[in-house]
Amino acid sequence: MGASSTIDPETKRLQALDEYQVLDTEDEEQYNNLVALASYICGTPISLISLITHNRQWFKAKVGLPISETPRSHSFCQFAIESDDVLEIPDALEDIRFYSNPLVTGNPNIRFYAGAPLVNSEGHRLGTLCVIDTEPRELSEAQKLALATLSEQVVAHFELRKKKKELEQEKQQLHAANQKLDELMLFVNSQLPEAITKLEHAEQHLSQNAQDQHCFENKSLQFLQENLAHLKNIHATINQDA
């Protein structure tokens, strides 16, 4: 059994969230546009992209809420990520899970909540796209569908962000590899003249002894001449490309 199979689902979910490198990043227009659209479609004063860590919910984008995070224990979204569909709370004061929640009894005085889970391609629920109101209400089926569709767009942006980061990392690795190759070529090029000179001296020595017509020396001379020509070609090519 592999080590990954022994990791509990929540740990895997948190690892998946970390891979997007989105927590505690600056505002980005594409996410701000999505929460603004969700707020408009659902007719709510508050909309959030909420990401759930082990101890907090952090808002990647928000409309109508001045804070950027709350403790996870206060979040409605911790329940929404356990749902396959949009979780709707028509009146938080009538729900045993939330009626004493500090976000209900105090600012921002939540009464209505609806959250669509942000589910990536591996099935990990990263957080929610949610809408909130200070008055009890319910969404229409069309509004729920729109909220779920917008949540998919949030995940698509996360995936695009992740892919871009991976491509940047690959580009950096390729650049580093090319630098090492350039350094190697410079080193080889610096050593070639001396190697060629030594081989030329050896060639002269073998040529002088070739008159004895010893088969071994003739073959050695031929081998040396072939390799000397090869090294000279390499040296010329390197200097031509430099």
- Backbone structural class: alpha+beta
How widely separated are the two ends?
53 Å
Q: Which CATH class of the largest domain?
A: Alpha Beta
Global morphology:
rod-shaped
Mean pLDDT: 84
Major β-sheet strand ordering: 3-2-1-6-5-4
Order of helix and strand elements from N to C terminus = HHEEEHEHEEHH
State the helix count: 6
Number of strands: 6
Oligomer: single chain
Approximately how much helix is present in the residues?
40-55%
Low-pLDDT residue intervals, each spanning 5 or more residues: none
Description:
With 242 residues, the protein is of the alpha+beta class. The chain folds into 2 domains: 3-167, GAF domain (Beta-Lactamase, 2-Layer Sandwich), CATH 3.30.450.40; 169-241. It contains 6 helices and 6 strands, in the order H-H-E-E-E-H-E-H-E-E-H-H. It has helices at 9-19, 29-42, 77-80, 102-105, 141-209, 215-241; strands spanning 46-52, 56-63, 69-71, 87-89, 112-119, 125-133. A 6-stranded antiparallel sheet has the order 3-2-1-6-5-4. A hairpin with a 5-residue loop joins strand 2 (56-63) and strand 3. Helix 2 packs antiparallel against helix 5 and helix 5 (141-209) packs across helix 6 (215-241). The protein is rod-shaped and about 105 Å long. This is GAF domain-containing protein. It comes from Adhaeribacter swui. It holds the Pfam family GAF. Keywords: Coiled coil. Residues 26-168 form the GAF domain.
